[in-house]
Design brief:
InterPro entries: TPM_dom (IPR007621). Pfam families: TPM_phosphatase. This is UPF0603 protein YdjH. The chain is an alpha/beta fold and 291 residues long. The chain has nine helices and seven strands, in the order ααβαβαββαααααβββ. Strands 1, 2, 3, 4, 5, 6 and 7 form a seven-stranded mixed beta sheet that branches. The longest helix is centred in the last third of the chain and has 23 residues. About 15% of the residues have low confidence.
């Protein structure tokens, strides 16, 4: 009876600690939801590669409130890559919870071997035509070599870098501005979190909750186990060792299938800048080229 009493008392203390846990921390953490941002319809990535890239894209998207999207297509109809990109964004925006989604986007047309880097709304401001050209130049070599994971990673990282730098104003012949981006003027509306603030697992609300649950659960489990006395029955109590044994074993190998396909590569990497407007009326910056 004494052990049961202590177990119930410890359980009450544990529940009280959980009730005092700062619920606002949990609510703030749960706001950020992982969503699909890597649309590899051409099948260029493995599932693990796509998952890793999607996590990176979500991290950057939440940081800048701008969706970082990669879209690949075999484009059997041979649609122009800019139209392909625009149609995808229009559909993506229609299915979004908010109108006029800010985005930076990489589109690959595997039929015509073309790419298009674009920015929408805030993404168009920070990844303007010139910066889209720079991203396209940066990733074209990896695309031509068939290293799609590296190319997509470089796209995400460079777009993230540009989102943290104030862009130069668009070229205006009467303003005297060249339109060339500053080498690196940090954004005034964003201060990157320090390593201690961003990376410390101890300050993470979910980590604190899991630790408290684990410690409380172990303590209550030990007390509850001791409350009922020792258990002396084990697997040997009722086992007949002379007549017990494995009846049979059976391993059946089915098959392993590996398929490969060769993608013809176009060594022409030329391209150019210039945005436009989608069929749905959304303005965008852009840079297109081949790989």
């Amino acid at each position: 009876m004494m052990n049961n009493k202590w177990a119930m008392r410890l359980l009450s203390i544990w529940i009280g600690i959980l009730l005092l846990f700062p619920l606002q921390t949990i609510n703030a953490t749960s706001v950020d939801e992982t969503k699909q941002l890597i649309y590899d319809e051409a099948g260029l990535l493995s599932s693990s590669q796509a998952e890793t890239l999607n996590q990176r894209a979500n991290e950057y998207s939440q940081r800048w409130d701008t969706d970082f999207i990669v879209y690949t297509s075999n484009n059997p109809a041979g649609t122009d890559v800019q139209v392909l990109m625009g149609d995808f964004y229009d559909e993506y925006e229609r299915n979004s919870d908010v109108p006029n989604v800010s985005a930076v986007m990489l589109t690959l047309d595997m039929n015509n071997r073309e790419l298009y880097v674009s920015g929408f709304y805030k993404g168009m401001e920070y990844v303007n035509n010139e910066r889209a050209d720079q991203i396209r130049d940066l990733i074209t070599t990896s695309l031509s070599a068939g290293d799609y994971e590296q190319a997509f990673t470089m796209f995400l990282d460079k777009a993230n870098e540009f989102m943290g730098i104030e862009p130069a104003p668009e070229y205006d012949p009467g303003s005297g501005s060249s339109g060339i981006s500053s080498p690196g003027v940090p954004r005034t509306d964003y201060t990157p979190a320090s390593d201690d603030d961003e990376e410390s697992i101890i300050s993470n609300g979910w980590f604190q909750l899991i630790v408290s649950l684990a410690v409380g659960g172990i303590a209550v489990g030990i007390m509850a186990a001791n409350a009922g006395g020792r258990v002396t029955v084990n697997r040997f109590t009722y086992e007949d060792s002379r007549n017990s044994g494995v009846v049979s074993r059976k391993d059946q190998y089915i098959r392993t299938t590996v398929s490969k396909r060769k993608i013809e590569r176009n060594t022409n990497s030329g391209g150019g800048g210039g945005g436009g407007r989608t069929g749905g009326g959304h303005s965008h910056s852009g840079s297109r080229g081949s790989f």
